[in-house]
Automatic annotation (TrEMBL):
Gene3D superfamilies, per database record: Tandem AAA-ATPase domain
Name the record gives this protein: Helicase ATP-binding domain-containing protein
PANTHER family named in the record: SNF2/RAD54 HELICASE FAMILY
Domain of life: Bacteria
One example GO MF annotation: ATP binding
Positions of the Helicase ATP-binding domain: 4-177
Cited Pfam families: SNF2-rel_dom
SUPFAM superfamilies in UniProt: P-loop containing nucleoside triphosphate hydrolases
Amino acid sequence: MWDSFFMFTMKKCSNFSVPGSGKTASALGVYAYLHKKGLVKRIVMIGPINSFNSWIDEFKACFGGKQELSVFSIQNSTLHSTADKRRAIAFNTGGSNLILFNYESIGSFISEIEKLVSKDTLLIFDEIHKIKAIGGVRATYALEIARKASYIIAMTGTPIPNSYTDIRNLLEILFHDEYDDFFGFSMQQLKNPEEQDIQVINKKLQPFFCRTTKKQLLVPEANGDAIIVINASEQENKLFNILRLKYSKNKLALIIRLLQLESNPSLLLETLDISEFADI
């Protein structure tokens, strides 16, 4: 409930709650209030294809019979061509309250999506970390679309999987030209921040996202590992030493052979084709 209140109040913000915490439900809570107030008529959700069913199921679970779901999916199997999909967006979405696009599709329908989100629409980016690549084509499309929207929610449970550069696109999608005025982080600051940079970045980010943690959800701590120590037999030690000597100049081959020794020693009798592991 708090996350929904926060996102409604902010109009444009992020939800960084942990996976399984109810980000979809809280976003639907924002939609429910905006819809009741006559501020929006629909959700346009842009996210991975595998999130489509979750949005449909969650909508039904949250609203029950209080609001009938009318969904439009760009992946509808009856739409066979780009032209079919373009016509469907133009003529078949008027009564839809949940419209679903995947990130791979938006480049083909920029102008159509811009018209949809320009009024009466809550625009949601699900798993927005999927478009974190700086200068990426899909991120550029998302930025164009977001410029037209009045209400935006950017959702991800992993906002900074690698470095602070992962949030650059997210912030520009939410705040566009205001990024330079308020945040103003250089790429160098985001990529290799010093301690004082980290403090500044965190302080500036904090007002613009909500996050429900595992602790707040009363998720118990993970059980500690049960480590069982078993001494190697004399025969196993002999095999180990043979392998260590034979593959002393090829560490990858040694690791593979040791894994075979501990899991299924009969594999040691087979020829090892190291080229099969070239991509490792």
